Amino acid sequence: MAKFVIGSAWPYVQSVPHLGNMIGSVLSADVYARYLRLRGHEVVFVSGSDMHGTPIEVEAIQLGVDPQDYAMRMHGIVAELFRRWNISFDLYTHTHSNTHIEFTKDFFKKIYENGYVFTQEDELPYCPNDKIFLPDRFVIGKCPYCGYERARGDQCERCGRLLEPRLLIEPRCAVCGAKPEWRRTKHWYLDLRKLEDAVRRYVEGNKELPQNAREMALGILKEGLRPRAITRDNKWGIPAPFPGAEGKTIYVWFEAVLGYISAVKEYFEKRGEPDRWREFWLDPSTKAVFFVGKDNIPFHVIILPALIMANGGGYTTRLTTSSTEYLNYEGDKFSKSRRWGIWIDEALKLMPVDYWRFVLVYMRPENRDVDFTWQTAVEVVNKVLNDDVGNFAHRVLSFIKTRFGGVLPGPGPSTPPDAEFVEAVAKYVKSAEAHYDRIELKEALMDAVEIAREGNKYLNLRAPWQLVKERPEEAGTVMYNSYKALMALAALLYPVIPSSAEKLWSMMGLQPPVRWPNADPAPGIKLGEVEPLFKKIDKNELDAMLAELRRLREERWSKKYPWDQVVL
């Protein structure tokens, strides 16, 4: 049994996450955490709301509300939505918790004492209209490398290059569009130059990094790491702990990535075991896996390891990311400003949560950008979830119910097709296990679906409805093998659609929890109540869903306050 810290990128509470955010981080992390627990590993799965920084501060000022009240209100809404999506966090917290604030201050104080922080006066962008210094992300302009028109001052979303506001062509304030002025101010910098060689060795030696993370990180390292400002002139944030830094706060990206550590600490504090977090983060054998979109790669693959190295506190460096490409919506990127996409609160009003979880993992953009379309989503529900998975489960259980009195028969005589089916199921279980271990969640789900498809073909080939009349013992063999395959299917599906897998497990007459298929079922198990697991979505239902989505969209954008825009 191994120790794992699983983290999903901390969502910014300025708005509700959309489906792309969900599959890029939170849902994928949940699937992997559930799989690890299923295999008996010790897992702490954490995340939280990213509460601080200019976006919240500026919007709160514009709305006439207190930034902390705004952030806490939105945090409660996002936490509730994740609960409704059946996300199995051990702790979902936020970056304004006392534990996170004190941990972050102590962590950076140690980095300062270790000689990795220096001060520098610099000219930084200042918006004369909004009368605030603009953090990197609040300056937008043309990327000097790829020409993308809406590159941010810290990173280009298209090519992934780390940037600085001065590098942007035709920079402008992301809040109001005004041309920023450059004013002198003093800040505290992380000296990444001192850490560059160590970070390079970490990236080059980390065989578990996905290809997109490795390539992006090595590309950044090839250009050389430059110092990055730790502090900001924001009021809403964690006070910088450096001597003379009164009035400065810590840049949200530097403190949010430390949340993976502080949240584990907070989790064990809440359990009354305040020192147990050390058994995870200070154990070099612990593996920490962060689930992020590709735009977050630099901060997880370069900045976080650099911070850990600079702190020198003995934290595990078995770090990796599972970094997806983008999920787009009907041919274009999700966009709140353009009102394009589906947000996770809206989604729950349209289809059951397990349908969404299945569809999103089935479409997961593991190696390339993927386009969500309603046509594809409905096909996945109707042809894969219902016709392949649901149909196989119902055929097996309803046959045992009607022809064997609801009791699992024992295996009788076996024929070559029986042995071939058993072998095929074992092959797909082994393949799915390997894919789950490599965090290839879409491929693992495909293997589970293949078990159902093989099962349906097996039933058609062996025709137990005929065998039960002529050679009932052979019919018993077919149903025993099919039931065993269904056990494997339920286990492989559990990380993706836990509620449906638990329902299937119960219909099979098995005691919870769902278990990995390591043992054969005992003949004589009495089935529970049997009913279809899923149902198809017809054209009228799809039309009704799209009409409801339009209604929800009009309702959402008619409200002034973000918390009133949420559909609960």
From TrEMBL:
Catalytic activities: tRNA(Met) + L-methionine + ATP = L-methionyl-tRNA(Met) + AMP + diphosphate
Positions of Zn(2+) binding: 143, 146, 156, 159
Family label: Belongs to the class-I aminoacyl-tRNA synthetase family. MetG type 1 subfamily.
Organismal lineage: Archaea, Thermoproteota, Thermoprotei, Thermoproteales, Thermoproteaceae
Chief place where the protein resides: cytoplasm
Record-linked Gene3D superfamilies: HUPs (3.40.50.620), Isoleucyl-tRNA Synthetase, Domain 1 (1.10.730.10), Methionyl-tRNA synthetase, Zn-domain (2.20.28.20)
Identification of the protein by name: Methionine--tRNA ligase
Species, as recorded: Thermoproteus uzoniensis (strain 768-20)
InterPro entries: Anticodon_Met, Met-tRNA_ligase_1, Met-tRNA_synth, Methionyl/Leucyl_tRNA_Synth, MetRS_core, MetRS_Zn, Rossmann-like_a/b/a_fold, tRNAsynth_Ia_anticodon-bd
Enzyme Commission identifier(s): 6.1.1.10
Bound cofactor: record note: Binds 1 zinc ion per subunit.
Chain positions of motif 'HIGH' region: 11-21
Pfam families: Anticodon_3, tRNA-synt_1g
Residue span, Methionyl/Leucyl tRNA synthetase domain: 5-397
GO CC list: aminoacyl-tRNA synthetase multienzyme complex; cytosol
GO biological process: methionyl-tRNA aminoacylation
Record function comment: Is required not only for elongation of protein synthesis but also for the initiation of all mRNA translation through initiator tRNA(fMet) aminoacylation.
Entry's Gene Ontology molecular function annotations: ATP binding; metal ion binding; methionine-tRNA ligase activity
Compartments (UniProt record): Cytoplasm
Keyword terms: Aminoacyl-tRNA synthetase, ATP-binding, Cytoplasm, Ligase, Metal-binding, Nucleotide-binding, Protein biosynthesis, Zinc
Top enzyme category: ligase
